[in-house]
Amino acid sequence: MAESNPASRDAAREVTRLIEIMAMLRDPDKGCPWDIEQNFASIAPYTIEEAHEVADVIERKAWSELPGELGDLLLQVVFHAQMADEAEMFDFADCAAAISDKLVFRHPHVFGDESRDKSAEQQIKDWEAIKAVERANKAERGTLDGVAMGLPALTRALKLQNRAARVGFDWPDAANVLDKITEETAELVEARDKLDHTALEEEFGDLLFVMANLGRHLNLDPELALRRANAKFTRRFQAIEAALAADGRKPEDSDLAEMDRLWDQAKLREKARA
Questions:
Q1: Which pTM does this prediction carry?
Q2: Which SUPFAM superfamilies does the UniProt record give (predicted)?
Q3: Domain match, 155 and 213 both
Q4: Mean pLDDT score of the chain, rounded to an integer?
């Protein structure tokens, strides 16, 4: 067992202990039946979920929860590495070595002879040049190659647009994007009454894609903006529920007009506290 005092814990020892625990869980004779039957594909959704839970803790500034959530995310890396080790593909040490080598390669101004005295703009250009070399080594020839399919859709849209912008395929400013949003909105309204579900979905997707592009031009992360909008909606709707509960009622016992009024009250309270 590890020491109870966190200050006395040794990182290398704890990582080794975690790897050993994971190996035991996957042991065909003595391990956990659930862990044994898992594979890369079945674990991948948990990996994505744990990453989002880390982001959620950071967004809520719930710092006391962060070590646990980061531990859950680390478990996903160890789980995948253990399965790979069993298949004689690679192991955890290979994962750690790969990211260490990548960090050193991508930071020649820290680990090499390049000067650190350069602008942020030059740093970005150098970074992209280094990543271009990495993509070439992976035989990724197209501009959009290597943008992961499994990313959240808004995040992937942003990355695709950034890649295209690097080669000049981009609107010059946000005003042009706003014009495109007006155009796509009109097409969606027209499609609502004339097109089938599949065509309507396509028009809606086009509008979302352009909205992501507007966020990029405004230097906003659309995924983060939507997460915060979700959190705001949750807070205000919970305020509606709390106000109704004070009268012994639930939302289904109310109507839209009353809930709108309670929503506006919650909004005013938030602005007063800001």
A1: 0.66
A2: all-alpha NTP pyrophosphatases (SSF101386)
A3: yes
A4: 90
